[in-house]
Design brief:
By secondary structure, the protein is mainly alpha-helical. It has one domain. Helix content is about 60%, strand content about 0%. It has 20 helices and 2 strands. The protein has a two-stranded antiparallel sheet. A hairpin with a 3-residue loop joins β1 and β2.
């Protein structure tokens, strides 16, 4: 793809240092498409990534989920950036559950191909028209991304955003600034040869903040970043079980905290199941996007606001993988044979909780997998299958792009989707795009 926009967005659309939804580096075929398609493909992929971590469990109508053994890669880390913690992928490894990375990759590839092929056609249409809209600027030559409008504009605006976050009275905004600065460090490591990492490692400050904070989001962000190699000493003091033991009762009612425990300590899966079932707070994964949106300078043109949010949205998805890993581990635990009576009852409660309260499509899909072995009727399984499929279709329908990805209509729609997803979760955000419900759709809900 053209250099200007790629440099402007950086690793954001694919996660830390260009990592994608498959728990490693971006799929080469998708990467080739992304480079080929230009502006529209980048936006199509970024919008798609906003739901892929949840809407990966795509059933064909009337079909069955793919089955095999395996699990999600531990902490999405490999190579020079770090290694998964020992034992993180061993829990219930012998249980015959769906192979999540394979299903995730297949869904990602198929839906990406659909959206990106549509983007290709739209790009060709825009090229034939000669110009495309850039909201706040006007019309520019199609198929180009002038550096002064993208790369250089981002380089000028981004430090202002980080400074506003760092000076915020809100602890979560200040934590987001540390996460984003660490991402800049990783980006430098991936784009410079030899790597030119800044001397400061913001994980020291982030881990110290997490040790003193009552906010599970700050703990989750710090724990995720501390899994990368070369972690400073403060990271070694982070212990999710110890943090939970010291947390006030109301903080322990956050389901995200127990999903983090499952990821950090797979051997405590049974305790994590109980924590999720007892939780009274079951919102979307904590996101940096709303804080960045609030910190964007008022004088930024609309298209540039979207470019900066795309950068952050990819990082939010990378961090969200920790929560999805927790859901994976709890699903494996609950599908394991020979659970005792109390354990089986807890897992039935987990299936019910996820079905009724999960804000992510992943959570709904996991409720089906757990309910399948804990007493759900075939009719209920089918209804959940229909619901998940409808949400996946809604993503493809609602997030499809026209020939002008940075036109004002798309800019407004994309920003609203990102903020809706962060505030209410992807199930609520995607529900706006659902087709009118027929008898099957009504049964699914």
């Amino acid at each position: 793809m053209a250099v200007g926009l790629a440099a402007a967005v950086g690793g954001g659309a694919g996660g830390f240092g260009g990592r994608g939804v498959n728990g490693g580096f971006e799929d080469p075929a998708i990467a080739r498409q992304r480079r080929r398609l230009g502006l529209l493909a980048l936006v199509a992929k970024a919008l798609l990534l906003a739901v892929l971590l949840g809407a990966w469990w795509v059933w064909e109508p009337g079909g069955e989920p793919s089955r095999a053994a395996g699990g999600l890669p531990a902490a999405s880390l490999d190579g020079s950036l770090g290694a998964a913690p020992a034992g993180a992928a061993t829990s219930a490894s012998s249980v015959a559950t769906p192979q999540l990375p394979a299903v995730m990759a297949t869904a990602a590839a198929s839906v990406s191909a659909l959206v990106l092929n549509g983007a290709d056609a739209a790009s060709q249409a825009a090229a034939s028209a000669g110009t495309t809209e850039l909201c706040g600027v006007g019309r520019i030559q199609a198929g180009t991304d002038p550096p002064h409008l993208f790369e250089h504009a981002v380089q000028a605006a981004w430090p202002r955003v980080l400074a506003a976050l760092a000076q915020s009275p809100a602890e979560r905004a200040r934590a987001a600034a540390l996460v984003l600065r660490f991402h800049e460090r990783l980006t430098d490591a991936h784009t410079n040869s030899p790597p030119a990492w800044p001397a400061e490692d913001t994980r020291d400050a982030l881990a110290a903040m997490a040790l003193q904070s009552p906010d599970p989001a700050v703990l989750g962000w710090a724990w995720s970043l501390c899994r990368f190699s070369g972690a400073p000493a403060a990271c070694q003091q982070l212990s999710v079980p110890r943090w939970i033991a010291q947390a006030p009762d109301q903080v322990q009612e956050d389901a995200a905290l127990w999903l983090l425990l499952a990821t950090a300590e797979p051997a405590q899966a049974a305790r994590a199941v109980q924590g999720v079932v007892r939780a009274t707070q079951f919102g979307p994964s904590p996101a940096m996007t709303p804080w960045v949106a609030a910190a964007l300078p008022a004088d930024l043109l609309p298209y540039l606001r979207l470019v900066l949010l795309l950068r952050v949205q990819g990082l939010d998805l990378s961090l969200e993988a920790t929560e999805i890993r927790g859901l994976d581990l709890l699903t494996r635990h609950c599908r394991a044979p020979h659970l005792d009576g109390a354990g089986a009852a807890d897992c039935r409660g987990l299936a019910e909780t996820l079905a009724q309260r999960s804000s992510s499509v992943t959570g709904l899909a996991m409720s089906h997998l757990i309910g399948e072995v804990h007493g759900w009727s075939q009719a209920r399984q089918d209804a959940m299958q229909v619901r998940v499929h409808a949400l996946a279709q809604a993503a493809r329908r609602g997030l499809s792009l026209g020939a002008e990805p940075f036109g004002c209509a798309n800019v407004e729609r994309a920003q609203q989707f990102f903020l809706d997803r962060a505030a209410g979760g992807e199930v609520a955000a995607l529900s706006r795009f659902l087709a009118p419900a027929g008898p099957a759709g009504a049964a699914a809900r």
